Structure formats: C-alpha cells, structure tokens
From TrEMBL:
This is Ferritin. The keyword Transcription regulation does not apply. Residues 70-223 form the Ferritin-like diiron domain. The lineage of its organism: Eukaryota, Viridiplantae, Chlorophyta, Mamiellophyceae, Mamiellales. It catalyses: 4 Fe(2+) + O2 + 4 H(+) = 4 Fe(3+) + 2 H2O. It holds the Pfam family Ferritin.
Length: 242
C-alpha cells in the first residue's frame, strides 16, 4: 500500500511538471505573437533616420536639461539672472523705506503706502523675469541680496525729499540695467527676448522714472528742502491719490 501511494504521488508530480512546462511554452508563444503584432512596420531608411535624430538630440533623464530651450544663449540667461537680482534688491530697499515711514515717530502713511506698492511692483518684475527664464528653458539662479539701510532722514533734505530722490536714482539705475540687458539680447540675435523686454519691462520702467521725477518736482514746489509742512501736505496728496 505504501509503495503504491508513493508511485501515485510521483505520477501526479510528473504530470504537474508537464502542465507547467506546457503552460510556460504557450505563454511565451503568446507574448511573441503580441510583440510581433505591435511592432511597427518601419523600413530600413526610416529606421536609420530615427536613429540619427535621437543620437543628434539626446533626451536627458535629469532636470539639468531643458526640452524647451531653443536659441536661448547662456549669456542672455546670465544677464536675465543678474537683472532678477537687481529687481529684488530694489524691492528690498523699498520694503525698508516702507517700514521707515510706517514708524510712529515718522507717521507719513502716504509715503509708507507708496513705497510698499513700489516694493511689490519691483518684486513682480523679478517674478516676470523668472517666468521668462523658465519659458525659454533656462535656469533661474537667485543671488544674495544686499541689506538696505534702515534710516532715511536727512539733516538738510528731510526724509521725504531724500527718500524720493533715492527712489528716482533707483528707477534710473533699473532703467539703465534694462537697457544693458536689451543690448545683450540684441548682440545674441534674440528677437523674442528683445520683444519681451520692450513690451513688458522697458516701457513701464520709463513711465516709473517720469512719475518719480514729477513727485520730486512737486515736493520741491511745496516748500524748501527739509520743510516738514511740505512733506506733510505731500503725504496727504499721496493718501488721496491712493
């Protein structure tokens, strides 16, 4: 009885092995048929063209390579990153000026609100440039910001005139930097970058220079430099304007 049972178990195991091998062979034949049916019918010339195209334009698997980059020079990329730093530094200074005029012992809310708006505007310009760098397939590289001064009172000019003249200098500096950036784009033959700068950046910047220049002229007409009442009246003008 024991011998018969062992023989029966051996026959069952042998049958299972045959079925497993048969199933594996069938599965392999099925995969081969599927792969053959899905394989595109490409002639030799087309295959050679595909191989050449993929070898000429390799696809990187890392984030260091941009799929969208086209006609965007490294020099333009560096110049745009430098301008982003300029915009953020100017915004940083305007933030400090806003905090100064918001103090309880300065109490010129119109000036505070004006410089806060200027700070946000300069930051938005930096973000526009960052978006453009990404649009062109570049890499944004933020740089260190310089700490701005905290005091804006001047013994002769007073805080109002001193701050506006500083603002005018910053706007002119920004305009000069944008012109330099435009020249870099021109030298690189980057028509799209030139168009972007002219439409989105340079025209608003020229308008800002003119606006601040008129503010300086208006304040000087209200009274001599350092006149506290002139600063107060101009502050009221800024509050009403807002």
């Amino acid at each position: 009885m024991r011998v018969a049972r062992e023989r029966r178990v051996a026959r069952e195991r042998a049958g299972d092995g045959k079925r497993t091998r048969s199933s594996a062979q069938s599965s392999a034949r099925w995969r081969a048929r599927v792969e053959a049916s899905e394989r595109p019918n490409v002639d030799a010339d087309a295959s050679a063209a595909i191989i050449e195209a993929t070898s000429t334009h390799p696809v990187s698997q890392t984030t260091s390579y941009s799929f969208a980059r086209s006609g965007f020079s490294a020099e333009c990329e560096r110049a745009l990153n430098a301008q982003i730093n300029v915009e953020y530094n100017v915004s940083y200074i305007y933030h400090a000026m806003w905090a100064f005029f918001e103090r309880d012992n300065v109490a010129l809310k119109g000036f505070a609100d004006h410089f806060k708006a200027e700070a946000l505007e300069e930051r938005s310009h930096a973000e526009q440039l960052m978006e453009y760098v990404n649009l062109r397939g570049g890499r944004v590289e933020l740089q260190q910001l310089l700490p701005p001064q905290t005091e804006y009172d001047h013994p002769e000019k007073g805080c109002a005139l001193y701050a506006l003249e500083l603002s005018l200098s910053l706007e002119k500096l920004n305009n000069d930097k944008l012109c330099e950036l435009h020249r870099v784009a021109e030298d690189a033959g980057d028509a799209h970058m030139c168009d972007f700068l002219e439409g989105a950046m340079m025209d608003p910047q020229v308008q800002s220079v003119r606006e601040v220049a008129e503010m300086v002229a208006t304040l000087l007409r209200m009274g001599p430099p350092g006149d506290g009442m002139a600063a107060w009246h101009f502050d009221q003008y800024l509050q009403n304007k807002a």
